[in-house]
Amino acid sequence: MAINGISNGSTGSYTAPSPPAPEGAPGRRSADPAPAPPPPQPAPAARLPDRNLAPVPPVTLQPVQPVQYRGYLIDITA
Asked: Compositionally biased, Pro residues: which spans (predicted)?
């Protein structure tokens, strides 16, 4: 490599040193597994608004009748 016409005999190649090995957690041996994370907390239950609602009137259901659909008799009364 030459700088301002002066050569120091270097070819100009450079190899970076390898990075240091990663260290384990302090106070733990590397063979020990990491502790499990805490379980997730359930969401708080939803609360209904505090209102005095009128009662719902009862609904009367009619008996199911057989019907015909595309030429087929549909009967679910059994």
From this structure: 34-43
